[in-house]
């Protein structure tokens, strides 16, 4: 069966929806159903060196409980091909029912990302010619851009950065408290200086007043003395 083709604009809207939900939900931002071992493909225009990081989980339909449950025999084959370069395959990853997809676009252009369920022969699944298992629910949390790498794989570094920021904020608070203390000390010193200067000015005025009174008294005394000397 040919893979389902979704237009670039539709896929962009889907991944925009995924990116928005990724901010609120840790996983399972988007899911779809696959019937049998059929590849489910998406097409996306990726600029060169764009990092794509995704987490996926496949669950098998259980008719007894009428729910989708994890299956140890279920696997997922992931392929990424450059449609602009004769379907050159850049990723061929076979893994368990849940895992991570990470790749970086080597060149700009349209990329086809496909997910194909596979099942072992132990339980008479698809590969052994048995009856199809009733469908697969594939949950996908895919983020396009370099920030996804930081958010997904460098949590330890992010925690270190957060701790350093907290330490810097603490130091800034200490500096602010020191500045407030210095301003208070400067204000206290300025008040003391103004008080001392005011006392010096008052004392100087008192001294000038005393000198003025003394000079006036001496001049008056001398004037009286000279008058008496002329009379005698």
Quickly give the structural class: alpha+beta
Give the tally of β-strands: 9
Rg calculated over all Cα atoms: 44 Å
- Principal-axis shape equals rod-shaped
Total helices: the number is 3
Lay out the secondary structure:
Elements: H1 8-22, E1 30-34, E2 40-46, E3 51-62, E4 67-69, E5 74-82, E6 88-96, E7 98-104, E8 109-119, E9 136-144, H2 147-153, H3 155-231
Antiparallel strand pairs: 1-9, 2-8, 3-4, 3-7, 3-9, 5-6, 5-8
Structural overview:
This protein is of the alpha+beta class and 232 residues long. It contains three helices and nine strands. The protein has helices at residues 8-22, 147-153, 155-231; strands at 30-34, 40-46, 51-62, 67-69, 74-82, 88-96, 98-104, 109-119, 136-144. Strands 1, 3, 4, 7 and 9 form a five-stranded antiparallel β-sheet that branches. Helix 2 (147-153) packs across helix 3.
Provide a quick synopsis of the model.
The chain is an alpha+beta fold and 232 residues long. The protein is built from 3 helices and 9 strands. The N terminus is likely disordered.
List keywords for this structure.
disordered N terminus, 9 strands, single chain, alpha+beta
